[in-house]
From TrEMBL:
<dbReference type="InterPro" id="IPR051765">
    <property type="entry name" value="PH_domain-containing_F"/>
</dbReference>
<dbReference type="Pfam" id="PF01363">
    <property type="entry name" value="FYVE"/>
</dbReference>
<feature type="compositionally biased region" description="Low complexity">
    <location>
        <begin position="220"/>
        <end position="234"/>
    </location>
</feature>
<dbReference type="InterPro" id="IPR017455">
    <property type="entry name" value="Znf_FYVE-rel"/>
</dbReference>
<keyword id="KW-0862">Zinc</keyword>
<dbReference type="InterPro" id="IPR055251">
    <property type="entry name" value="SOS1_NGEF_PH"/>
</dbReference>
<dbReference type="GO" id="GO:0035091">
    <property type="term" value="F:phosphatidylinositol binding"/>
</dbReference>
<dbReference type="GO" id="GO:0005769">
    <property type="term" value="C:early endosome"/>
</dbReference>
<dbReference type="Pfam" id="PF22697">
    <property type="entry name" value="SOS1_NGEF_PH"/>
</dbReference>
<protein>
    <submittedName>
        <fullName>Pleckstrin homology domain-containing family F member 2 isoform X3</fullName>
    </submittedName>
</protein>
<dbReference type="InterPro" id="IPR011993">
    <property type="entry name" value="PH-like_dom_sf"/>
</dbReference>
<dbReference type="InterPro" id="IPR037871">
    <property type="entry name" value="PH_Phafin"/>
</dbReference>
<dbReference type="InterPro" id="IPR000306">
    <property type="entry name" value="Znf_FYVE"/>
</dbReference>
<dbReference type="InterPro" id="IPR013083">
    <property type="entry name" value="Znf_RING/FYVE/PHD"/>
</dbReference>
<feature type="domain" description="PH">
    <location>
        <begin position="35"/>
        <end position="131"/>
    </location>
</feature>
<keyword id="KW-0479">Metal-binding</keyword>
<dbReference type="GO" id="GO:0008270">
    <property type="term" value="F:zinc ion binding"/>
</dbReference>
Amino acid sequence: MVDRLVNSEANARRIAMVENCFGSSGQPLAEQGRVLVGEGVLTKMCRKKPKARQFFLFNDILVYGNIVINKKKYNKQHVIPLEEVKLESLKDEGQYRNGWLIRTASKSFAVYAATATEKEEWMAHIEKCIEDLLRKSGKQPPSEHAAVWVPDNEAAICMHCKKTQFTVLNRRHHCRKCGSVVCGPCSSKRWVLRGQSDKPLRVCLQCYDDLTRERARVPPLAQPAAHTPHTAAAGSGGDSSADDDSDDDDDRAPADHSHDEPKFYGDGEKTEETNNHSSKETK
C-alpha cells in the first residue's frame, strides 16, 4: 500500500497541506520516499488533563500538534521517528477507553481513540510502519523508554513521602525516571538519563537510590556521563513539571464536539487516481 503511494500526486498534495496547516511553526515534511499514511484526532493525556491533538502518521515519522482551527491550522508540532516507537495497549478504565501508550526513549504518553475500531486501525497502521522501517534498516527496536507521567489530578499528595499535600506553594514535580508526581524535597536529586537529555534531570529519591546502586555494579568504563546531585528549592520554577510538556498549554481553539473518523490512505484511492490518469491519456 505505502509503496504504491510514494510517487503519487495525491500523496504530495496531502503532505503539502499538512505543512501549510502548521505554517512557520512546523518543520518541512516533504522528503523523498515519505508517505502520509493516515491522519485524525486523538485525545492525548497531557500533564493537566486530556486534550484533543491532531495526529499525522507517515511511513517513517509520527507528527502531532495542537488544534488552533480544526482542519486548517495547527501549532506546537512534534515529530517522532517511528523506528524509536513502541506501542502498548491500555485496558479500558472508567472514562478512559480505547487507549494505548506511545513510548520512546525521550518521551512516552497515552492517547485515546473515539472507538475501539479506530484504536485497532491506528495501532495496526503504526505497527505496520514500524515493522517495515525496522526490516528495511536492519535495526533493533529500542529496549529502553521514558516513563509515562502520572497526570497531576491523580496525585493529591506526594507519591514518594505520602505526606506532602500539593498547594499553590507546594508544587507538583515529575520524576523523569518513573513518572511519579512528587514534591520538591522528594525530587531534589538529578541524574543524566540517556535518551531524554544530556543534562541532569529531576528524579525522585527512590529512583536516585536505585540508579546509584545500579551504577555501583557497572564497570567505570561502561558508565554513562556523571550525575550531578544537588538540591532544588521545592517551589523553584526552573525545573517545573510543565517544562517537558510544551503541548500542555491551554488551547485557543473553541470546543468542537463533532467527531470525524480518521483517514487512512490505501489502495482504493490509488486505484481511483490510476483510473483518472488512464482516462486523461485516453482523451
